[in-house]
Amino acid sequence: MKKVSYWAIFKNGLFGENPVFRLALSLCPAVAVTSGVKNGFLMGVAVFFVMTMVNVTVSLIRSFISPKVRIPAYMFIIATWVTVTDLVMGAYARDVYKEMGLYIMLIVAFAIVLSRAEVFASKNKLIPSMIDGMGMGLGFLLALVLIGITREFLGKGSLWGYDILHTRPLLIMVLPTGGFFAMGLLMGFLNWIDRKVFGGTGASSGGH
């Protein structure tokens, strides 16, 4: 029996199959919430929590879920954890929640969350599934933070709301067009790093 490398599973979510930069999933919500670093970070934390808990839940009850109703069952599990996240953020981060509350609820429809439940958690034991959820969630979080830093710094001359340049060099960067532009530049830059440093390994298989 082939031994499972937990580090390989975790690293896969960060680099090999990064949800945004490699798989190009959930790009519109990613652009919508990354006009600033703070919103991108909090959205990433919410996705990290939901992905981890969904993977854990699906792995624990996978033997009880009929293949005929697995997708509705996964959606119900995702909706449950998204509701928990929405209520917690609404209670303890109200200022940010007012700006991005709608997008928190949209996590239910994020393709990356459902795909990991189907592709990985439904076929693997608890610990590997939890690590996969954490790796994918952290990969999504890091992607949103990088995009947020790029857009806020170039578009507003600030980081986390604090003025650094005291000017707005490229105002277009805080618009949706600038969001996709920043995302494309970061994808190209990270792919270049992958080829130069890691030999262009590309996306690896999600199944273990």
Fold and architecture overview:
Strands 1-2 form a two-stranded antiparallel ribbon. It has helices at 6-16, 27-32, 37-61, 70-92, 94-105, 111-119, 126-156, 176-197; strands at residues 158-159, 162-163. The model is unreliable at 203-208 (pLDDT under 50). The protein is mainly alpha-helical. Strand 1 (158-159) and strand 2 form a beta hairpin. The longest helix has 31 residues, at 126-156. The chain has eight helices and two strands. The chain has one domain (26-193).
Helix content: 55-70%
Order of helices and strands: HHHHHHHEEH
Low-confidence stretches: 203-208
| Chain-averaged pLDDT | 88
Mind telling me the C-alpha Rg?
Answer: 18 Å
Number of helices: 8
Strand order of the largest sheet: 1-2
Strand runs, count:
2
Query: What's the number of domains?
Result: 1
End-to-end distance, in Å?
11 Å
Q: Label the structural class.
A: mainly alpha
Assign an overall shape: globular
Q: Main sheet?
A: 2 strands, antiparallel
Key words describing this protein structure:
single chain, 208 residues, mainly alpha, two-stranded antiparallel sheet, 2 strands, 67% helix, disordered C terminus
